[in-house]
Design goal:
Layout: E1 6-14, H1 21-29, E2 36-37, E3 50-51, H2 65-68, H3 73-89, E4 101-106, H4 112-123, H5 135-139, H6 143-152, E5 158-161, H7 167-180, E6 186-193, H8 198-206, E7 236-244, H9 245-250, E8 257-266, H10 279-292, E9 301-303, H11 310-324, E10 332-334, H12 337-340, H13 347-361, E11 363-364, E12 389-390, E13 395-402, E14 406-413
Parallel strand pairs: 4-5, 4-6, 9-10, 9-13
Antiparallel strand pairs: 1-7, 1-8, 2-3, 6-7, 8-14, 11-12, 13-14
Helix pairs in contact: 3-6, 7-13, 10-11
Length: 417
C-alpha cells in the first residue's frame, strides 16, 4: 500500500526556559540556562539541590481549579502544552471529524508526585488506608492522553507509550505511523514529565546519574564537555499536531515541516548504561534513515540525546561518526539539554520541536556550557558550542535513548509540495 504523507501543523511547549513556543525558541537561540535551586521541597539532605523546573507557571491560568486538582503536574503540563498546539493548528471544530483524531502521548514515569504524596501520607498515619479517590487516576501514565481527548472530544486512537527517556519520540513515531497507514487523519502527540520530586531526585541521586554541581547550577548541564558529571533533571511538556498532508492542505493549514521517518532499536546491553560503542544508537539512526528513504549525506543536523553523562555522550558521538562517516564533520550537532535539562519522557517532544523550529528559522540552537574538550570525543564534530549558528536546515534528526536500552529517532524535513 502507498503510505500517506504526514506534516506538522501545530506546536506547543511548556519548558524550563519558556512557557510557550515563542518563549522556548527565544530561550534556545539565546542559550538560556534553565537550571536553578529547587523550590518544590527542602533539599538540605540531598546530594543534588537544583533542577530545571518550569517557572512562573500558574495552572489556574489554564485549567479551572477543581479540574486541576484532579491532575498530577505531569498531566497538567500535557493539557496546557496540547492546548497551545491545538490552537496553533487552528481547526474548524464544526467540520473536523473527531472520530479521525487521536492522541498518543508519552511519559516515562507519569504521576510520581501523586504516588509519593499518597504513600508518604499513608506511612505517616495509623495504618488506615485513607487514600484520595483521585490517587489512581492522577498517577497512571496514560491519563494525560485521556484528559486531552476528553477536553476536545477526540475519539480516534488513544494510548500512552512508556520507554523511559525515549517515550515521547516513540509516541511521535506511533502517531506518524497511525496516520500514514490510514488509521487517523490527525494525531495529537508529544510527552510530559514532572519528576522533580523528593522521590525523583532521591532515586536518580542514588544511581549517581545526576550532576552535583551545586555551586553553579546554571553550567551543570555540560554535554560533550570533559568535566560533565551527570544530567540535570528537567520537567515540562511538548505537544505536536501531526496531520495527513491532503487533510492539512484541504483546510488551508499552516505547515511547519514534514515528518520523514522514524527508527527504533534496543541496546540489549545494560539496564542503565549505553553500549560503549553506541551500537544501539547507530542502529536506530540507520533505521530512521531507511524509513525516510534518505542517505546519511542528506541530513543537515542531529539534535543529540546528549545528556551530559560521562558514558552516554561518548557513545552517541561514536555512533554519529559510524553512521555519517565524513559527512558527520559537515553537520551541525547540538544538545538542547544543555539548556532545558533532561525532561525524561518529554525530552523527545521538546527536542523534536527544537529541530522543527531550526528548519523554520534557519538557526541551530547551541550546546551551551562547553569549557573543555574531551579527548575521547572527536574535535572535528561541530557541536554548535555556546552560540547559535545560522544555517539552512532541510533535514534534521532527533535522538532519544532510554534506560533499558530503548532507542528512538525521528527525522523531520522541510516541506516541499
Amino acid at each position: 500500500m502507498e503510505l500517506r504523507r504526514v506534516v506538522v501543523t501545530g506546536l506547543g511547549a511548556l519548558t524550563p526556559i519558556g512557557n510557550n513556543i515563542q518563549e522556548y525558541w527565544d530561550g534556545l537561540i539565546n542559550g538560556k540556562p534553565g537550571a536553578a535551586p529547587i523550590t518544590y521541597f527542602d533539599t538540605t539532605h540531598f546530594k543534588t539541590k537544583f533542577a530545571c523546573e518550569v517557572k512562573n507557571f500558574n495552572v489556574e491560568d489554564f485549567i479551572e481549579r477543581k479540574e486541576a486538582r484532579k491532575m498530577d503536574r505531569y498531566a497538567q503540563y500535557a493539557v496546557v502544552s496540547s492546548e497551545e498546539a491545538v490552537k496553533d493548528a487552528n481547526f474548524d471544530f464544526e467540520t473536523l471529524d473527531k472520530d479521525r483524531v487521536g492522541v498518543i502521548w508519552g511519559s516515562g514515569i507519569g504521576g510520581l508526585e501523586t504516588f509519593q504524596q499518597e504513600v508518604m501520607e499513608f506511612a505517616a498515619g495509623n495504618g488506615t488506608p485513607k487514600f484520595n479517590p483521585f490517587f489512581i487516576p492522577k498517577m497512571i501514565a496514560d491519563i494525560a492522553g485521556g484528559h486531552i481527548s476528553i477536553k476536545y472530544g477526540f475519539r480516534g486512537p488513544n494510548f500512552t507509550t512508556v520507554s523511559a527517556c525515549a517515550s515521547s519520540t516513540n509516541a511521535l513515531i506511533d502517531a506518524f505511523n497511525y496516520i500514514r497507514l490510514g488509521h487517523a487523519d490527525v494525531m495529537v502527540t508529544g510527552g510530559s514529565e514532572a519528576a522533580v520530586t523528593i522521590a525523583g531526585m532521591g532515586g536518580f541521586n542514588a544511581m549517581h546519574a545526576l550532576s552535583t554541581r551545586n555551586d553553579d547550577p546554571a553550567t551543570a548541564s555540560r554535554p560533550m564537555d570533559k568535566d560533565r558529571d551527570g544530567f540535570v533533571l528537567g520537567e515540562g511538556a511538548g505537544a505536536l499536531i501531526l496531520e495527513e498532508l491532503d487533510h492539512a492542505i484541504a483546510r488551508g493549514a499552516k505547515i511547519y515541516c514534514e515528518v520523514g521517518g522514524g527508527g527504533m532499536s534496543a541496546d540489549a546491553h545494560h539496564i542503565t548504561a549505553p553500549h560503549p560503542e553506541g551500537f544501539g544508537a547507530r542502529n536506530v539512526m540507520f533505521s530512521c534513515l531507511r524509513d525516510a528513504g534518505l542517505k546519511p549525506e542528506d541530513v543537515d543536523g542531529v539534535n543529540m540525546h546528549g545528556t551530559s553523562t560521562p558514558l552516554g555522550d561518548i557513545a552517541e558521538s561514536k555512533a554519529i561518526e559510524a553512521v555519517f562517516g565524513e559527512h558527520a564533520y559537515t553537520m551541525n550537532l547540538n544538545s538542547t539539554k544543555s539548556m532545558t535539562g533532561h525532561l525524561l519522557g518529554a525530552a523527545g517532544a521538546i527536542e523534536t520541536i527544537a529541530s522543527i523550529l531550526s528548519i523554520k528559522y534557519g538557526i541551530v540552537p547551541p550546546t551551551i556550557n562547553h569549557f573543555t574538550d574531551d579527548e575521547n570525543i572527536n574535535p572535528r564534530l561541530n557541536f554548535t558550542f555556546n552560540k547559535a549558528q545560522k544555517r539552512e536546515m532541510k533535514v534534521v534528526m532527533s535522538n532519544t535513548f532510554g534506560f533499558g536500552g530503548h532507542n528512538a529517532c525521528v527525522l523531520v524535513k522541510k516541506f516541499e509540495q
